[in-house]
Amino acid sequence: MKEIAKDIFIESNFSGVVVGVIRTLRGLILIDAPFRLEDQHAWREALQNIDGGSNRVLINLDTHIDRTLGVKGMSSVVIAQEKAVSMLKNRPSSSRAQDMDAGAMWEVYEGLSSIRWVSPEITFANRLFLNMDERRVIFEHHSGANVAGVWVKVQHAKVVFVGDSVLINQPPFLAYADLDAWLVDLKLLLSSEYRDYLIVSGRDGLVTKDDIREMVKLIKSIQRSLIRLIDKNMDAEGISSLAARMLRRYDSKKAYKETYLNRLRWGISMYYDKQLRPEKDK
């Protein structure tokens, strides 16, 4: 566990997601949860060593299985953006019935069969202010990378957790994204509002403004590629070809090559069906 600012910690050694915790006088604010049982045990032990109050709340930065699968093991009050409720309720309880081959990191590991999803006790639409001491923590809805995406903003410490809005070493998740909104979110991160902020990616830990600029270039490139693909008619061959081209920038991660390729195929297909398919074809 690394303390990146006073009373704010992250752990980047677990599989799938980078988790975080904000220590307050009344308790701990947890940012996401690891999905592997051994990682959950390790995280709970680490949290016991933080001298905070007895209360615990957990915020899910979006509905991705990698960050919602382990919520039950955290024994916390759960907060999420309101759109997460229906998405979680409609999710099957068996791992075999999930969106397999969607390129999530949990798919790489065995031993998951029955899943109990935890619905959030507290939801919000656009903003939620949490005061567990005199220092306010802000939860904001940002729908670019995920329709139920949330950023956690700690103004006094100039730290913001942005989930999957910024990814460095792995391809983006496109299935529940809105690329136009994503670019708006990234532009905001590059604005004066976030000058001197520490920006925490939900997959890569601390990222820089240069990383965000590269993310902008990537999203714009994906937009152009999708437009060209639509003009040539969307089919399985075209999707696979585009996914393979997009994967080339991540060749250094050969151990997850097939997982990342599946992620891109699935994401392109889902994004087209939800965002780009002509109304007459839906």
Walk me through the topology:
Layout: E1 2-5, E2 8-11, E3 19-23, E4 27-31, H1 37-48, E5 55-59, H2 65-68, E6 77-81, H3 83-89, E7 122-124, E8 127-131, E9 136-141, E10 150-154, E11 159-161, H4 179-189, E12 198-201, E13 205-207, H5 209-231, H6 236-247, H7 257-276
Parallel strand pairs: 4-5, 5-6, 6-7, 11-12
Antiparallel strand pairs: 1-2, 2-3, 3-4, 8-9, 9-10, 10-11, 12-13
Walk me through the structure.
The chain has 7 helices and 13 strands. The model has no long low-confidence stretch (mean pLDDT 86). The longest helix is centred in the C-terminal third of the chain and has 23 residues, at 209-231. With 282 residues, the chain is an alpha/beta fold. A hairpin with a 2-residue loop joins strand 1 (2-5) and strand 2. The strands form 2 sheets. A 7-stranded mixed β-sheet has the order 1-2-3-4-5-6-7, covered by helices on one side. Strands 8-9-10-11-12-13 form a 6-stranded mixed β-sheet. 32% of the residues lie in helices and 20% in strands. Helix 4 runs antiparallel to helix 5 (209-231) and helix 5 runs antiparallel to helix 6. It has helices at 37-48, 65-68, 83-89, 179-189, 209-231, 236-247, 257-276, and strands spanning 2-5, 8-11, 19-23, 27-31, 55-59, 77-81, 122-124, 127-131, 136-141, 150-154, 159-161, 198-201, 205-207.
What is the total tally of β strands? 13
Instruction: Report the principal-axis shape.
Output: globular
- Structure class: alpha/beta
Helix content: 25-40%
Short description:
This protein is of the alpha/beta class. It is 32% helix and 20% strand.
